[in-house]
Amino acid sequence: MPPFRSIGSAVALAAVLCVHSAGAATHAPAAHSAPALSPRLAAVVTLADLIAGNGRFAKGRANHPHADGDRVRELAAGQKPRAIVLSCADSRVPPEIVFDQGLGDIFTVRVAGQVLDGSTTSSIEYAVEHLGASLIVVMGHHACGAVKAALTTAPGKAGSRDLDELLDAIRPAVRKFGAPQADDKMLDAPVRANVDAVAAGLTRRSAILRERVAREQLTILPAVYELATGTVSFWDYSAPVADSREAAGVPQRH
Fold first, then answer.
1. Residue 224 · residue 142 · CB < 8 Å
2. Is residue 116 a contact partner of residue 125, using CB atoms and an 8 Å limit?
3. Among 54, 52, 12, CA closest to 28
4. How many whole angstroms separate alpha carbon 76 and alpha carbon 118?
5. Which letter does DSSP use for residue 251 in this model?
6. Strand order in the sheet with 83-87
7. pLDDT in tens, 9-39
8. Residue 74, class by beta-carbon neighbours within 10 Å (0-12 exposed, 13-18 middle, 19+ buried)?
9. Strand partners of residue 108
10. Torsion sign, CA atoms 253, 149, 87, 120
11. pTM for the model
12. Contact, 202 vs 114, CB < 8 A?
């Protein structure tokens, strides 16, 4: 298989795999039980499973896989998650549930606004370097309180030093939007801008991640969770790929 021209082509292929596997009664097998794949292709297969799982969740047909005693005992010997999801700490956006994944399937790092710091980045580096994950999804969500606070709270006025530092980390990505309009409850554009900034910031901050991406051993993909529908949409922050996503039926960025 030729190399992917962009993350978008990976999303398109994942969507095709998702369509072909639609209606399957069982959860996709874990990567460690399947034949060895290149990291790039492994990321696509994992992405297809995340897309399919989110589709089940959004339709109220979640399988709730890998949640029994056998899985608990299996994981006692070690973990090998197929993907890393960096998401907001918001209680409405638990990645394992919205992607219909189970114990040991994804390595989840959660912090308000997906803000990067030493703890966040090193946790992701660990999952890449030592657990072998080849896909990172940076997932924001509509109506993110951290993004709204960054848009509406004056610097130094968040209430504590730690809150101020969190909002300071978000402001550069969303400053251009100004205070949100009263009818802009979802904050779609600033939420996506923040996700883009975090996704790009991972490789700027981490030599480990930067080198893996350069060698096509790691895929980083931005996404947003839509509170009103339960769906997750993906896009490529590095290349225009709307046509390929539309052809594959992947939700579009608006």
1. yes
2. no
3. 52
4. 28
5. P
6. 106-110, 83-87, 135-141, 219-225, 232-234
7. 555 656 555 554 444 444 544 444 546 788 8
8. middle
9. 85
10. positive
11. 0.82
12. no
pLDDT at 14: 60
- SS3 for 88-109, per residue? CCCCCCCHHHHCCCCCCCEEEE
The residue to which tokens 């594959």 are assigned: 248
Q: Tally the C-alpha atoms within 13 A of residue 35's C-alpha that lie toward its C-beta.
A: 1
pLDDT tens profile 147-161: 999 999 999 999 999
From CA 30, how far away is CA 35, in angstroms rounded? 10
Alpha helices, H only, 38-160: 39-58, 69-75, 95-98, 118-129, 145-152
Alpha-carbon distance of 68 to 56, in angstroms, equals 19
Higher pLDDT, 130 or 184: 130
C-alpha 214/C-alpha 123 separation (Å) is 20
Share of the chain above pLDDT 90, in %: 73
Tell me how many degrees the CA angle 125-126-129 measures, rounded to the nearest 5: 80
pLDDT in tens, 189-233: 999 999 999 999 999 999 999 999 999 999 999 999 999 999 999
What contacts 26, CB < 8 A, 6 or more positions away?
63, 65
